[in-house]
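Hi support team,

I'm opening this ticket because the web form for multi-chain structure prediction keeps timing out on my end. I have pasted the exact lines I submitted so you can reproduce it. The total is 239 residues across two entries, so I didn't expect it to be a heavy job. Is there a limit I'm missing, or should I split the entries? Thanks in advance, R.K.
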Amino acid sequence: QSALTQPASVSGTPGQSITISCTGTSSDVGGYDLVSWYQQNSGKAPKLLIYEVTKRPSGVSHRFSGSKSGNTASLTISGLQADDEADYYCCSYAGPSNCVFGGGTRLTVL
Amino acid sequence: QVQLVESGGGVVQPGRSLRLSCAASELIFSGYAIHWVRQAPGKGLEWVAVISYDGSNKYYVDSVKGRFTISRDNSKNTLFLQMDSLRPEDTALYYCARSLPPPSYDSGHTSYFYGMDVWGQGITVTVSS
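Hello R.K., no limit was hit. The queue was backed up. Here is the completed structure from your submission:
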């Protein structure tokens, strides 16, 4: 199974909103509402930000939101802050009984 | 404390074996499916395997099928990954991660893939001669 496609990098200034895309196929992103997003700070374990496309775990800021259209899922970060600078990964169920991650996106806060 | 702690990593020659462990508190282990996810140096995340809460179902990424075996000992709140016939491309930081519980209506193959909400700190495996 091929990795989902994410932009290698995105950047924004404090207070701005940015969106990270995650493109797959009808066999993964487009076929199931089972997309999750993770934030990984340098040298740290990933942290769950979004699950089931749009849901936020308790404790995750409302500045993080998820959506999906067709075969592309998106993570939007509003009110960008310096400590949002990290790597972001999407993950989708890719049936049968496996999942696939995106290649990751490095977010730089200018 | 809600945590997972991996151990058992190290440097191993190609073709040899290694067994990773992931110890957890009962609070976060019992009743949950658990995943292994790896990250090659400087690369992205790759899902490796998942095991159901009772060990009855196990699924693997194609690249490790027939070489890796996931298992768990619920009496000791510990997850394992037996890695045989190791290859240089298996070199990575290996994480164990708890699976979000699925909604009550989903008991099928998708039920293990709602997300991963608790992660260990990772353990390094290096396969090199």
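A quick check on our side: The mean pLDDT of chain B is 94. Let us know if the file doesn't open in your viewer.
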